[in-house]
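User: Please fill in residues for this 113-position structure.
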């Protein structure tokens, strides 16, 4: 993976490492929400919710647009799919290692049955 790709992966997983951000992402993937409406759903300040939204936006997991005085946030399904793809790639690496270990064990001539 390139350095740019590694930076993007870091940003995505950092954003998803927080339960509030994951919950915000679930909400905005289901439909567009104003940041004010999102803030009303959490027991934290509006500024704290704005910071969570900013982290998700910086990672590319959501986009914001203005409608009058409101900021509307929407989830980016393609970004979520890219995270799933990265995890699948890691899973395949580990499954390959386990398969090679299984082959080594099966081919061990000293192994007793």
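Assistant: Residues filled in for all 113 positions:
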């Amino acid at each position: 993976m390139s350095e740019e790709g590694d930076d993007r992966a870091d940003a995505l997983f950092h954003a998803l490492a927080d339960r509030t951000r994951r919950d915000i992402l679930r909400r905005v993937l289901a439909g567009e929400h104003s940041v004010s409406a999102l803030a009303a759903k959490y027991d934290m300040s509006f500024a704290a919710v704005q910071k969570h939204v900013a982290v998700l936006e910086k990672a590319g997991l959501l986009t914001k647009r203005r409608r009058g005085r409101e900021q509307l946030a929407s989830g980016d399904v393609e970004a979520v799919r890219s995270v799933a793809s990265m995890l699948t790639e890691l899973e395949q690496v580990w499954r390959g290692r386990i398969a090679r270990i299984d082959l080594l064990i099966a081919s061990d001539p000293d192994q007793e049955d």
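For context: DSSP finds five helices and three strands in the chain.
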